[in-house]
Amino acid sequence: MDKMPKWADVILTPLISLILAMGISALVILAIGESPWEALTTMVEGALGSSYGWGFTLYYATNFIFTGLAVMVAYHAALFNIGGEGQAAMGGLGVALVLLYLPLPHWGLALPAAMIGAALFGAAWAFIPAILQAKRGSHIVITTIMFNFIAAAALNYVLVNLLRPVGSMDPASARFPDATNLPSLSEIAAGLGMDWGRNTPVNVTFFLAVLACVLVWALIWRTRLGYQIRALGKSEPGAVYAGINPVRITVIAMLISGGLAGLMAINNVMGESERLVLNAVEGAGFIGIAVALMGRNHPFGIFLAALLFGFLYQGGGELALWTSIPRELIIVIQALVILFTGALDNMVRMPLERVFLAARRNKGAAR
Amino acid sequence: MILKDSLIAVIVLAICVIWALADGAAAQQGIGSALRLMTPLLLACLAGLYSERAGVFDIGLEGKMLMAAFTAASVAYLTGSAWLGLAAGIAGSLSLSLIHGLASITFMGNQLISGVAINFLASGLTVLVGQNAFGLGGRTPALTGTGRFQPITLPFAETLRGVPVLGPIYSGLISGQTVLVYVAFAMVPLTWWVLFRTRFGLRLRAVGENPASVDTAGVSVTRLRYTAVAICGVLTGIAGAYLATGLSAGFVKEMTAGRGFIALAALIFAKWRPWQALFATFLFGLLEAIANLYPNLDLGIITVPSMFMNALPYILTVVILAGFVGRAIPPRAGGEPYVKER
Lengths: 367, 342
Fold this sequence. Notes:
The complex is a heterodimer. Chain A has 15 helices and no strands. Helix content of chain A is 76%, strand content 0%. In chain A, helix 9 packs across helix 11 (246-273). By secondary structure, chain A is mainly alpha-helical. The model of chain A has no long low-confidence stretch (mean pLDDT 90). Helix content of chain B is 70%, strand content 2%. Chain B is built from 14 helices and two strands; from the N terminus they run αααααααααααααββα. In chain B, strands 1-2 form a two-stranded antiparallel sheet. In chain B, helix 3 packs across helix 7 and helix 3 crosses helix 8. The relative contact order of chain B is 0.19. Chains A and B meet through helix 5, helix 6, helix 12, helix 14 and helix 15 of A and helix 5, helix 6, helix 12 and helix 14 of B.
């Protein structure tokens, strides 16, 4: 029997963890002599108070949905993929190669082609750690960390020595052809006669991200493959006994995970910068860990957590602009969220379970 | 077996000898630089060794080192004493170790996630507090004079300089380092002795392989693991303090630049053993020194870009992890919280 009702497990524990993280962040802000309330209002005003703020919040959220889903799919197979950063960076390379070398006349054609490039490169970058984990038992956490650094070095080399246009000093690729630029949501809104979110980077990729949430949900809970992934994650001997091939499922789960991380590049490389720059991912791969933990490894939770982190990111930028609090505050909040929802989960859960057990016992005694 | 074990040592010595024969002066400069660059790696690697041998995985070495570098540089600047800075560095690193211990020992949480959180916590807090205290965009003001650890000239360094081969090695490489470099090197035999010749070391290794047996023998698993995590904190603290007050003159945002992860790579490369850790970190320090000295290394047939040199420690670690060149098997109970049977 479960010690707690499901709603407490799914909603109450993450909420308490979040409140703890926010509380400590408020103490940190107090400690550096600023007002937490002022910080919060600045963040809300800057991220949610205007369509301009929303445009950025949703743009960041799109990144985090992809990386969060990437962490989640691997997590259901009991694999901790912290290589999202490198996989997303490689996805960017895939996007850049497709858009620079295939003559695609319209974004409607360029989008699926770039998606294939992004997913393939991201998945390929996850493949070696996956096969090493599955066949040789090399710890996937360590190999994916190493692959993040290898990806950074490889991209640095490719951008400086291969993709950099002649005469340019900037370690970045050439601009992608204009025809392949994705329509931004503000352009769509303008087409409908609305003035919404002018000069913001959020683009049609946001809808792709929402679609990805639905597809991943269906994959994990409504398909045979998803069942196999979850079975492997719960118990490897059990899965083997049920006739599931652990090597195959480990590799497939990691390929999907890497592909999802790679797809993030559609948003930031194709949608926003419209060329490949150095360090385009900017830590979004790691935020995916916080988003997946916060969202309890469910696509709907991930969607909400990604919105939360999108808000924090945009709000953090505004904070740095209008107050003397640097935007690194967001990294602290992110760390605290990972700490409380991930590592110190039991600290919140154990007392809660005791409360619920006591409540149930009292009810039993009353009867 | 012995040859395979000393593989790293052979490779490292071969590189040094070839380099010295090709260009003696550059080799002396490069190897000296490698000794300094390897010091934080070695300290962090031995730190991870204690923790992981006791069954607590630590991917938060990077964060702890960063935090220590910041607290050390700040206190060294404010007090003008590198030694007080060192103490502050150890304290800063220990506070994060305590969080890691709470999460992974007391609350039986996921050690990897805790490590990730600690890395971000250090990365954010150092800039947040640094910007607030000094207003230099996350840097601390440059350290001068007694705020830094100064090179120590060993006895007879000058008189022995003229001796062929050994003279330059003694006076140019061994002498003239800061005190923390010697501390780091002394830690290698000390760690070996503690782990393999003391009762504490035996128990520490046992708790990483089979905590239930240690528990049955009436020794507290919790206490042993906390001790190991604390030792880890002290050593990463020294590593961070050296980074900010020995190797450079002050703290810079994200100054560890992946060194914690290279230390982790070295630990795997060394298969969780102290002497091998010495050679592995020297190899990685040497690679960094070579990449710094020659941005584009021309080996005659091919030109090696510096990015490849920088990525080489990670690539080598993946190769070792893949088990094609001697398998790296971590302590058996590593990563698992110990749950006493009820």
